[in-house]
Amino acid sequence: MPEEFKPGCKRPEIKKMSVATEETTAQPAAKEAMKSMVKVGKPAPDFTAAAFYEGKFVNVTLSEFRGKWVLLCFYPGDFTFV
Amino acid sequence: MKYPEFQALGAEVLSMSVDSVFVHKMWNDHELSKMVGHDVPFMMCSDQDGGIGKAYGIYDEDSGVETRGRFIIDPDGNIQGFEVLTPPVGRNVKESIRQLQAFQLVRASAGTEATPSGWRPGKQTLKPGPDLVGNVWKVWKVEEAFTE
Known about the structure:
The complex is a heterodimer of chains A (82) and B (148). Helix content of chain A is 18%, strand content 24%. Chain A is built from 2 helices and 4 strands. Chain A has helices at residues 18-25, 28-34; strands at residues 3-4, 48-53, 56-61, 69-74. Chain A has a 3-stranded antiparallel sheet with strand order 1-3-2, with no helix packed on it. The two termini of chain A are 30 Å apart. The model of chain A is unreliable at 20-24 (pLDDT under 50). In chain B, 32% of the residues lie in helices and 19% in strands. The mean pLDDT of chain B is 94. Chain B is built from 5 helices and 6 strands; from the N terminus they run αβαβαββββαα. In chain B, a hairpin with a 5-residue loop joins β5 and β6. Chains A and B meet through α1, β2, β3 and β4 of A and β1, α2, β2, α3 and β4 of B. β4 (69-74) of chain A pairs parallel with β1 of chain B.
Protein backbone atom coordinates (compact mmCIF):
# COMPACT_ATOMS: atom_id res chain seq x y z
CA MET A 1 0.00 0.00 0.00
CA PRO A 2 1.10 3.61 -0.44
CA GLU A 3 4.17 4.44 1.60
CA GLU A 4 4.61 7.86 3.13
CA PHE A 5 7.72 9.88 2.34
CA LYS A 6 9.16 13.07 3.77
CA PRO A 7 9.62 15.68 1.10
CA GLY A 8 12.85 17.67 0.94
CA CYS A 9 13.16 21.16 -0.49
CA LYS A 10 12.71 19.99 -4.04
CA ARG A 11 10.10 18.04 -5.86
CA PRO A 12 10.29 14.29 -5.15
CA GLU A 13 12.39 12.26 -7.54
CA ILE A 14 10.55 10.60 -10.36
CA LYS A 15 10.30 6.86 -9.79
CA LYS A 16 11.07 5.19 -13.08
CA MET A 17 9.56 1.77 -13.42
CA SER A 18 8.26 -0.39 -16.21
CA VAL A 19 7.20 2.76 -18.03
CA ALA A 20 10.85 3.73 -18.44
CA THR A 21 12.38 0.29 -18.83
CA GLU A 22 10.03 -0.56 -21.66
CA GLU A 23 11.12 2.60 -23.40
CA THR A 24 14.81 1.79 -23.16
CA THR A 25 14.46 -1.81 -24.28
CA ALA A 26 12.00 -1.09 -27.08
CA GLN A 27 13.10 -1.14 -30.70
CA PRO A 28 12.82 2.15 -32.63
CA ALA A 29 9.58 1.08 -34.30
CA ALA A 30 8.17 -0.08 -30.99
CA LYS A 31 9.33 3.16 -29.43
CA GLU A 32 7.20 5.05 -31.90
CA ALA A 33 4.28 2.82 -30.98
CA MET A 34 4.81 3.69 -27.30
CA LYS A 35 3.77 7.24 -28.08
CA SER A 36 0.43 6.10 -29.41
CA MET A 37 -2.65 5.13 -27.47
CA VAL A 38 -2.86 2.14 -25.19
CA LYS A 39 -5.28 -0.60 -26.21
CA VAL A 40 -8.37 -1.89 -24.45
CA GLY A 41 -8.06 -5.45 -23.21
CA LYS A 42 -4.29 -4.99 -22.87
CA PRO A 43 -2.26 -4.42 -19.67
CA ALA A 44 -2.26 -0.90 -18.25
CA PRO A 45 1.29 0.50 -18.11
CA ASP A 46 2.49 0.21 -14.51
CA PHE A 47 3.95 3.20 -12.70
CA THR A 48 5.01 4.55 -9.34
CA ALA A 49 4.15 8.16 -8.65
CA ALA A 50 4.30 10.59 -5.76
CA ALA A 51 0.83 11.45 -4.53
CA PHE A 52 -0.98 13.65 -2.02
CA TYR A 53 -3.35 11.48 0.02
CA GLU A 54 -5.08 12.06 3.35
CA GLY A 55 -2.79 14.94 4.25
CA LYS A 56 0.41 13.03 3.53
CA PHE A 57 2.84 12.62 0.68
CA VAL A 58 3.00 8.98 -0.43
CA ASN A 59 4.40 6.85 -3.22
CA VAL A 60 1.72 4.91 -5.04
CA THR A 61 2.24 2.03 -7.47
CA LEU A 62 -0.55 1.02 -9.82
CA SER A 63 0.13 -2.72 -9.58
CA GLU A 64 -0.51 -2.56 -5.81
CA PHE A 65 -4.20 -2.35 -6.71
CA ARG A 66 -4.22 -5.67 -8.54
CA GLY A 67 -7.41 -7.42 -7.46
CA LYS A 68 -9.37 -4.16 -7.44
CA TRP A 69 -10.88 -2.08 -10.19
CA VAL A 70 -9.08 1.22 -10.76
CA LEU A 71 -10.37 4.44 -12.27
CA LEU A 72 -7.33 6.42 -13.43
CA CYS A 73 -8.14 10.02 -14.34
CA PHE A 74 -5.64 12.34 -15.99
CA TYR A 75 -6.44 16.06 -16.17
CA PRO A 76 -4.67 19.12 -17.55
CA GLY A 77 -3.80 20.89 -14.34
CA ASP A 78 -4.58 21.93 -10.78
CA PHE A 79 -6.37 25.26 -10.41
CA THR A 80 -7.72 25.15 -13.93
CA PHE A 81 -11.42 25.51 -14.31
CA VAL A 82 -13.10 22.30 -15.36
CA MET B 1 -18.54 13.45 -4.10
CA LYS B 2 -19.06 10.11 -5.82
CA TYR B 3 -16.05 8.41 -4.24
CA PRO B 4 -18.18 6.32 -1.82
CA GLU B 5 -19.98 4.87 -4.85
CA PHE B 6 -16.65 3.78 -6.34
CA GLN B 7 -15.65 2.34 -2.97
CA ALA B 8 -18.92 0.42 -2.82
CA LEU B 9 -18.06 -1.04 -6.23
CA GLY B 10 -14.65 -2.12 -4.95
CA ALA B 11 -12.86 0.42 -7.11
CA GLU B 12 -9.95 2.72 -6.31
CA VAL B 13 -9.72 6.19 -7.85
CA LEU B 14 -6.42 7.83 -8.80
CA SER B 15 -6.12 11.30 -10.28
CA MET B 16 -3.01 12.33 -12.19
CA SER B 17 -1.55 15.54 -13.55
CA VAL B 18 1.90 17.03 -14.12
CA ASP B 19 1.48 19.25 -11.05
CA SER B 20 3.68 18.53 -8.02
CA VAL B 21 2.29 16.95 -4.85
CA PHE B 22 2.77 20.35 -3.19
CA VAL B 23 0.42 21.99 -5.65
CA HIS B 24 -2.02 19.09 -5.22
CA LYS B 25 -2.05 19.84 -1.49
CA MET B 26 -2.69 23.53 -2.09
CA TRP B 27 -5.47 22.79 -4.58
CA ASN B 28 -7.10 20.42 -2.10
CA ASP B 29 -6.72 22.80 0.82
CA HIS B 30 -7.72 26.01 -0.89
CA GLU B 31 -10.25 25.10 -3.52
CA LEU B 32 -11.41 21.50 -3.85
CA SER B 33 -12.14 20.95 -0.14
CA LYS B 34 -14.26 24.11 -0.21
CA MET B 35 -16.17 22.84 -3.23
CA VAL B 36 -17.11 19.48 -1.72
CA GLY B 37 -16.95 20.21 2.00
CA HIS B 38 -14.19 17.70 2.76
CA ASP B 39 -10.69 16.72 1.64
CA VAL B 40 -10.20 14.94 -1.66
CA PRO B 41 -10.68 11.29 -0.64
CA PHE B 42 -8.55 9.69 -3.37
CA MET B 43 -4.86 9.78 -4.21
CA MET B 44 -3.80 12.80 -6.23
CA CYS B 45 -0.79 11.57 -8.19
CA SER B 46 1.97 13.65 -9.71
CA ASP B 47 3.43 12.85 -13.12
CA GLN B 48 6.08 15.56 -13.18
CA ASP B 49 7.72 14.75 -16.50
CA GLY B 50 4.59 13.45 -18.21
CA GLY B 51 6.22 10.00 -18.50
CA ILE B 52 3.13 8.19 -17.28
CA GLY B 53 0.86 10.25 -19.52
CA LYS B 54 3.10 9.40 -22.47
CA ALA B 55 2.85 5.70 -21.67
CA TYR B 56 -0.95 6.03 -21.76
CA GLY B 57 -0.87 8.11 -24.95
CA ILE B 58 -2.61 11.16 -23.52
CA TYR B 59 0.34 13.55 -22.94
CA ASP B 60 0.19 16.69 -25.06
CA GLU B 61 3.74 17.69 -26.04
CA ASP B 62 2.61 21.10 -27.29
CA SER B 63 1.20 22.31 -23.99
CA GLY B 64 3.24 20.08 -21.67
CA VAL B 65 0.16 18.80 -19.86
CA GLU B 66 -2.02 15.73 -19.88
CA THR B 67 -5.32 15.68 -21.68
CA ARG B 68 -8.47 14.48 -19.93
CA GLY B 69 -7.86 10.74 -20.21
CA ARG B 70 -9.90 8.36 -18.08
CA PHE B 71 -9.02 4.67 -17.89
CA ILE B 72 -10.96 1.79 -16.34
CA ILE B 73 -8.51 -0.91 -15.25
CA ASP B 74 -9.76 -4.35 -14.21
CA PRO B 75 -8.52 -6.46 -11.26
CA ASP B 76 -6.01 -8.21 -13.57
CA GLY B 77 -4.45 -4.87 -14.51
CA ASN B 78 -5.94 -4.77 -18.00
CA ILE B 79 -7.49 -1.65 -19.46
CA GLN B 80 -11.18 -2.25 -20.18
CA GLY B 81 -12.13 1.18 -21.37
CA PHE B 82 -10.91 4.71 -21.82
CA GLU B 83 -12.16 8.14 -22.79
CA VAL B 84 -10.00 11.12 -23.72
CA LEU B 85 -11.29 14.69 -23.90
CA THR B 86 -9.61 17.98 -24.69
CA PRO B 87 -9.30 20.23 -21.64
CA PRO B 88 -12.41 22.48 -21.85
CA VAL B 89 -14.97 19.68 -21.49
CA GLY B 90 -15.38 17.87 -18.20
CA ARG B 91 -16.14 14.21 -17.69
CA ASN B 92 -19.44 12.63 -16.69
CA VAL B 93 -18.65 10.69 -13.53
CA LYS B 94 -22.03 8.93 -13.63
CA GLU B 95 -21.10 7.46 -17.00
CA SER B 96 -17.84 6.14 -15.55
CA ILE B 97 -19.82 4.48 -12.75
CA ARG B 98 -22.24 2.99 -15.29
CA GLN B 99 -19.40 1.60 -17.40
CA LEU B 100 -17.68 0.18 -14.32
CA GLN B 101 -20.93 -1.56 -13.32
CA ALA B 102 -21.28 -2.96 -16.84
CA PHE B 103 -17.70 -4.26 -16.93
CA GLN B 104 -18.17 -5.81 -13.50
CA LEU B 105 -21.34 -7.58 -14.61
CA VAL B 106 -19.65 -8.95 -17.73
CA ARG B 107 -16.66 -10.11 -15.67
CA ALA B 108 -18.88 -11.73 -13.04
CA SER B 109 -20.74 -13.59 -15.78
CA ALA B 110 -17.40 -14.83 -17.17
CA GLY B 111 -18.35 -13.42 -20.54
CA THR B 112 -21.72 -15.17 -20.78
CA GLU B 113 -23.59 -11.86 -20.59
CA ALA B 114 -23.17 -8.61 -22.49
CA THR B 115 -24.70 -5.21 -21.83
CA PRO B 116 -26.55 -3.58 -24.73
CA SER B 117 -26.53 0.13 -25.51
CA GLY B 118 -27.89 2.27 -22.69
CA TRP B 119 -27.69 -0.56 -20.16
CA ARG B 120 -27.98 0.30 -16.50
CA PRO B 121 -28.08 -2.00 -13.46
CA GLY B 122 -31.42 -3.80 -13.46
CA LYS B 123 -31.93 -3.50 -17.21
CA GLN B 124 -31.84 -6.42 -19.56
CA THR B 125 -28.56 -8.03 -20.58
CA LEU B 126 -27.94 -10.18 -23.64
CA LYS B 127 -26.61 -13.74 -23.57
CA PRO B 128 -24.46 -14.14 -26.68
CA GLY B 129 -24.66 -17.55 -28.33
CA PRO B 130 -25.73 -19.29 -31.54
CA ASP B 131 -29.43 -18.78 -30.80
CA LEU B 132 -29.02 -15.02 -30.46
CA VAL B 133 -27.37 -14.53 -33.85
CA GLY B 134 -29.75 -12.52 -35.99
CA ASN B 135 -32.34 -12.57 -33.22
CA VAL B 136 -31.40 -9.62 -31.05
CA TRP B 137 -34.36 -7.71 -32.52
CA LYS B 138 -36.69 -10.32 -31.01
CA VAL B 139 -35.39 -10.02 -27.45
CA TRP B 140 -34.24 -6.41 -27.22
CA LYS B 141 -35.87 -3.21 -28.46
CA VAL B 142 -33.90 -0.15 -29.52
CA GLU B 143 -36.10 2.05 -27.31
CA GLU B 144 -34.60 0.32 -24.30
CA ALA B 145 -31.31 2.07 -25.03
CA PHE B 146 -32.95 5.38 -24.17
CA THR B 147 -35.05 4.57 -21.12
CA GLU B 148 -33.72 5.45 -17.68
